[in-house]
Amino acid sequence: MALEPGYCLHKPSGKAYVNLGGKVHYLGVYGTDESKEKCQALKAEWLVNRHVGAFAPVASTGPSMSEVVMAFLEHAPSYYTVQSVYSNLERAGWPIDEMYSNLSAKDFGVIPFRAFRD
Questions:
Q1: Angle, helices 83-100/33-49, rounded to nearest 10 degrees
Q2: 37 vs 42: CA distance, rounded Å
Q3: Which residues, including other chains, have CB under 8 Å from residue 39's CB and lie 6 or more apart?
């Protein structure tokens, strides 16, 4: 069984990185929560896809997944009148917010969804 790629420190720059399929992805300052979240999201997507060269995260503009989740959770109580339904939606939304908080909503496609689902 292959080992899962690790969260690593690039000592000269102090940045965190992960090597996925032979490509190094820099994640920001080593040890920060943001860099760890990026690492977790990239590894999940890579593990789902596994095709070398087919995985290429793209930076874009627009609302982030965190903003989308928060907007939905603000809207949900007025639409879903049963408290248990809202509670279930809230529990489902937080993991998406934690794993993909900085990802643009328009980039949340099939690969990130499958990574989150799995």
A1: 90
A2: 9
A3: 7, 16, 18, 27
Q: How far apart are the first and last CA of the chain?
A: 18
> Which neighbouring-strand residues pair with 18?
25
For residue 59, what are its two tokens? 């930076």
Domain edges within the chain: 1-57, 58-118
Query: In the structure encoding, which two tokens stand for residue 56, read together?
Result: 């290429």
For 29-74, what is each residue's pLDDT tens digit?
999 999 898 888 888 887 777 654 444 555 556 788 888 888 888 8
Within 10 Å of residue 30's Cβ, how many Cβ atoms? 17
Total-model pTM? 0.47
Exposure string for 88-117, b = 16+ CB within 10 A, e = fewer = ebeeebeebbebbbebbbebbeebbeebbe
Residue type, 8: C
> 8 φ, ψ to 5°?
-120, 160
